[in-house]
Each structure stands twice: as structure tokens, then as C-alpha cells.
Give the backbone structure.
Amino acid sequence: MPVLLQNDLLRRLALTVVATVAAVGVTVAATVAVEAQQADPPKRQTQQQQQKPPAKPRPNATTPPKAAATPTAKSEAARTEALPPSQIGIGTLARQAFMVDPQTSTVLLFKDADKPMAPSSMAKMMTIYIVFDELNAGRLKLDSRFRVSEKARNMGGSRMFVELGSEVSVEDLIKGMIILSGNDACVVVAEGLSGTEESFAERMNAKARELGMVGSVFKNASGWPAEGQYSTARDLAVLSWRTIEDFPKLYRYYSESNWTYNNIKQDNRNRLLRTVAGTDGLKTGHTEEGGYGQSASAVRDGRRLILVVNGLTSMAERANETARLMEWGFRESTNTTVFRAGDTVVEAPVWLGTQDKVPLVVARPVQVTAPTGQAVSPRVVARFDGPINAPVAKGTRLGTAALTLPDNRVIEYPLEAGADVPRLGVFGRVTGTIRHYLFGWWS
């Protein structure tokens, strides 16, 4: 999240505005408080204080509204209440579960999501992430080829069935890892990129730390059972979201339902692609220690949810439980738009510009997640250093908008200049400076 901008300046400008925004057929009342710190001309400004890190958002517990008192609703409620409870959200048969709306950072389901667990084939998402990263940087191409070693050919479990000594394209290896969950494909990739699978595992761990996956340690490229290898449901959700966000053009491979390689056709083990509307990825997994797990994502009406579960007892239970939880997430919660992309949050004063003010806008939609049918009234605080020195270029980041939600979580969004403001000519700058010193900013 962006860092709050705080300077030791001579004056503070404090305004309170009440804005009513209509978006997607929903009316939202948002109170916008502006915290602009007013400064004298540049020569009078004091040194900027050290910036402080933002508070880490906490999981948001949301309680869905009660269903109508019908026999069907009562039986469904009774069945749900009989399931092992979660710390946030409904009960689930999974030993670990985590569901998040990444647009608003709202946690809808949390059950032992920070508890270490065997990631099984869901660890392949990290191997795939690194391959995508190499492709995105231009260090690798889809038609690049890696040779199959004896170690890769002899891998057990789910396989792509590569042939010893053959050379396989990176694109085929991507499909082999995602659609076929090929352990052999993972070893080919690891050896092709890092020489050995052990060296590649070190790279996986470095990338995990970079992404903020503090509860994960990888020992191999495929998630094959290994002592000391673990992850968490929350970490795998972070990895899922970063894959979707960082590689939108490559993420499409996760949505392919089947593939044929070496004359062997195999279906994608992610059954949600065929059973839950809007599902477009990600990865299933299974080990004796971890049970059956899955990371899944779906989009409906522009809204995305990410779900990670683990510790289920069979493929059928995994398919049924993930489908039930995903449907619950979309049904019992909704997003309300507070600001659309490009909406003006506040206007900031400009020093020596052709315009006295510049609109500060959000570059992407600002949304709030709440139980379906529940009204929300977030408080929005806009912070920027003012006045802003001209010239101002449209799109320049100038501050932040912080939303305080009903559960006291704070989510921050960057504020950008919504227009160009050229600098005044010499005569205009002289006149403006004299006016400032005689009358101050209120002139």
C-alpha cells in the first residue's frame, strides 16, 4: 500500500466534503476529509520528515445476512453450522482455507490460513511464476527448448510423459505443468533455468520472500513431498493473485481444460473450470500428508475472488467443497464502488501554475466489500503535500486516499494529477509571489 506523505510544513489546510457517488446502480455516501499540508514557496520549505510505513490491513470478518426462513434455507444453514468452524466466514471440511477479494483486500474466509501445510502440486505455481517472469523480462521465449534429463524422465506421480534426451519447448512445459500437473515438466524447467533442481528451489524461496510469502519454504520445483517443505493457504493466495496481476497475458494457460502431449490426452484437474461459472484458474494438489487441496480463482461481473483450500479427503470432496465455497463468496458478499477510475477525490492548490488548483484522481476503481444488502459509508481521507509546485504533469502521483472501513481497516489508494497545469510566465510568477506574501493562500 502507498506510504502516507507527511512533511513538517508551516500551514495545514483542512476541509471536509461530503460526496455522494452513484456507480453500478448503487449509491454510496462517502465522507472525504482532506489533509493537505500547506507550504510556503519552495525556498521556505523545511526538510521532509522520514516516511512511515502504512498499517497492515487486517482480515475483515463479514457476517452474511440471514436467509429467508424457508425449509430449504433452514436445512442449508443447519448443514453449514454442522461443519468444522472457521475463524472468519462459514464452516468448511477443509483443514485450511482462505478466501479473499483482492480488489479490496477483504478476507471472506479464514481457517488456519497461516498454519504451515504441505503445498503439494500447488507449489508448481511458484515454478510457473518464475517461468512467466523470465518470459515477461525477455530472458526466455515460448519456443526456447530444454533437454529432458534422466531425473526428469523418472519422476513419479502426475506426469507429462516427456522422453529422455528430447528437447521440449517452454510453451509445452508450461502446459505440462499447469494442465497436466507434470512433475517431470517441473524438473525439466528447474534444470533448464538453474542447472539443478536444488538451485532452482533456492530461487523459488528468494522469489517467495520478494512476494511477501513469509510462511513458505520450497525444497523442489514440483511440490513432491520433502522434509522441511511447507506453505500456507494465505501465501498461496498471494502467489495466485500476483500471478494474475503480474502476467495477465500468460495467465490464460491456467484456463485450458485439457491438452494432448505425446499422443496422451489428459484433462485439467481443476474441475471448477467446468462446474463453477467464471473460473479461470489456478492449481490443484494432493499428497498423503497435506490431503487434497486447490487454489482457485473466478470472475463474475468484473469481480474476482481467490480461494485456497487444503486437507480435504478426496478429489470429489475437493471439487464439491471448492464449488460450494466459491458460490457462497459471490452470493453472500458484494462490492460497492466508492470512486470510479478517473474520479476526482479532491482538488489541490497549485503554486505558480496557470490554474490555481489541480484535480487529484484515482487511477483505478475504489471499492468496498460488504455483506450482500448491507449499506456501507466509508470515510475517505485525502493526503497530499500542498501547494503543489507547477508545472504539474497529468498522471503524476501526488498523494493518497485512505479508506477507513466499518471494521476500522484502512486501505490506501494512490492519487494522481488529473490534468496538466503549466507553469506561469515570468510576469505571472512575480505577481503570484507578491500576492502570496501580501495575502497568503486565501487570496
